[in-house]
Amino acid sequence: MQENNKVPEFNSETLDLIAQLIKRYPEGRQKSALLPVLHIAQAENQGWLSPGMMDYVALLLHIEPIEVYEVASFYSMYNLKPVGNCVIEVCQTGPCWLKGAENIVAHFESRLGIKSGETTADGKFTLKTVECLAACGTAPVIQVGTEYHENLTPEKIDQLLDQWNAENKISHTNPYL
Amino acid sequence: MATQILLKNIDVPGLTDIHVYKGLGGYSALEKALKNFTPDQVTEEVKKSGLRGRGGAGFPTGMKWGFIDKQSEKPRYLVCNYDESEPGTFKDRYIGELNPHQLIEGMIIGSYALGAKSAYIYIRGELFYVIKIIEKAIQEAYKNGLLGNNILGSDYSLDLYCHPGAGAYICGEETALLESLEGKRGNPRIKPPFPAIVGLYDCPTVVNNVETIAALPWIITNGSAAYSAIGIGNSKGTKLISACGHINKPGIYEIELGLPVEEFIYSDEYCGGIINGNKLKAVVAGGSSVPILPAELILKTAAGEPRLMSYESLAEGGFKTGTMMGSGGFIVMDHTTCIVKNLLTFARFYRHESCGQCSPCREGTSWMEKILMRIEGGQGTMKDIDLLVNIAKHVEGNTICPLGDAAAWPVASAILHFREEFEEHVKLQKCPF
């Protein structure tokens, strides 16, 4: 796809992890490891799946690049465009809406100075709305990387944003490590 | 206090540690199954218990196991459906997070009954922190001789793995889940053949929900008769209800099937009533897919009988005046709720989650969302309301998997029971809330 994409390469620790994951499936069924490997690949690539990264994953799993593209474009957790260091995903489905999810989105938008779907100019934050995160009893809820933050209020959001700003929060860490 | 099968020890500190779990009698059901029962006897126990699939469909679990093709020489698989994504449903999340060994013990017992040598727990990717907890518990189980070769000295061997999804509600449909587990897009398969004959890697496979699997150790320990003694009619045992929305005590509750809905909503043991002393307006009783009911029909059936939390009672009256047990995702709305706006969030959800394979669902979900945006935004017409009903009717039953039905029912039922509210939006040319 992209000609100018540098061929990525994982370090031996990541390659070992992937080899372990492939062993979970029967011989010849290594394609089954595609979803977990894409999670790792995205974490290793600043939180998104570039065409070069997807081609590399195809190589690692001995499948055609198209088999990776069609999967990467199907599942909502894979980002096919660059994202900020910290991706904030706000649940907006019914139960969270009942408990004020729209105010949560609005508060993030005003604090970050961006609209949902955008990334701050300094590249620190991306704001997204997502569908049900299965945490309806503690709504409203957001996800940041593998963390859930629940029973949110504007005050809690202010605290979290201050903390993430101070520590330069990165949400795309390898979920297996 | 209702019998606690799934949540009994959930508050015990350190329960995720195998020693704590074993100290409470954990893994003794597995030992009993391996020593005292043949695989077919385990299946028979589950059949007799009356346990039904807790993911939403409510299909009898033992019967589902009975369909597995044991003549085939191919390997057999048990797959746990941990793709909990139905809006309003958040029960399975806590089982893996707080009591992973109960799920693992259930997986080993179920796999033994089915003759599976490998089993997978397919868990939604958003719950990676739960995957880590379960994977640590799986490692402990291996170290303690409960997984791997010759489990507890028997001739039964099993490998168990977690597999993450990556954000797709449709993968909760069992054939889409199997596609996803094979590393593909989550497009549901045309059935038949059913997974019991042609499932994972074209091999005989059973897919069961987390809550279903987690009930197995108790059934083996206490016997099928003890399990079927709980509940009412064909609704045996206990069920986890995840309650959310405008109630004082949102959370998960384990109820004995047959509990009156009114008691569940208003008792301090459960939801604790409506927030701020508000009036109950409507309930979606089994996850976003099931028909919404107004207060009077969720508390009492059309015949005036108290409505019970059971498969039969919730369905009493069909889609005219009843609903469904579904996944047990219990969404409560008070009188301040705009039914149209709530429905719009559901319609957006289904449009987002449609896999796009079948035209009625792919086009219909998007169309319904657009019309609802129009009505909610004050630009709707009276004709739009009938158009919604018409589209819902043409989506329902015309798709490969039940996502089309799941998208159509909330629309049809909201208009059936709250038509005047849709009309008010049109007349006022704005949302009255």
In short:
With 177 residues, chain A is an alpha+beta fold. Helix content of chain A is 41%, strand content 10%.
Task: Please describe what this structure looks like.
With 177 residues, chain A is an alpha+beta fold. Chain A is 41% helix and 10% strand. Chain A has helices at 12-22, 34-44, 51-61, 65-72, 94-98, 101-112, 154-167; strands at 86-91, 125-130, 142-144, 147-149. The longest helix of chain A is centred in the C-terminal third of the chain and has 14 residues, at 154-167. The radius of gyration of chain A is 18 Å and the shape is elongated. By secondary structure, chain B is α/β, with parallel strands linked by helices. The mean pLDDT of chain B is 97. The interface between A and B is large, with 43 and 58 residues.
The spatial strand order of the largest sheet of chain A comes to 2-1-3-4
Low-pLDDT stretches of chain B are none
Main beta-sheet annotation of chain A? 4 strands, mixed
- State the secondary-structure class of chain B: alpha/beta
According to CATH, the homologous superfamily of the largest domain in chain B is: NADH-ubiquinone oxidoreductase 51kDa subunit
Number of domains of chain B: 3
Give the C-alpha Rg of chain A. 18 Å
Mean pLDDT of chain B: 97
The average pLDDT value of chain A, as a whole number, equals 95
**How much helical structure, as a percent, in the residues of chain B?**
40-55%
Shape of chain A, please? elongated
How are the SSEs ordered, and which strands pair?
The complex is a heterodimer of chains A (177) and B (433).
Chain A: H1 12-22, H2 34-44, H3 51-61, H4 65-72, E1 86-91, H5 94-98, H6 101-112, E2 125-130, E3 142-144, E4 147-149, H7 154-167
Parallel strand pairs in A: 1-2
Antiparallel strand pairs in A: 1-3, 3-4
Chain B: H1 18-23, H2 28-36, H3 39-49, H4 61-66, E1 77-82, H5 92-98, H6 100-114, E2 118-123, H7 128-143, E3 159-164, H8 174-181, E4 205-209, H9 210-214, H10 216-222, H11 224-228, E5 231-232, E6 235-236, E7 238-245, E8 251-256, E9 259-260, H12 261-266, E10 280-284, E11 292-294, H13 295-299, E12 308-309, H14 311-315, H15 318-321, E13 329-334, H16 339-353, H17 359-376, H18 382-395, H19 403-428
Parallel strand pairs in B: 1-2, 1-4, 2-3, 7-13
Antiparallel strand pairs in B: 5-6, 7-8, 9-12, 10-11, 10-13
Helix pairs in contact in B: 2-6, 2-10, 3-6, 5-6, 16-17, 16-19, 17-18, 17-19, 18-19
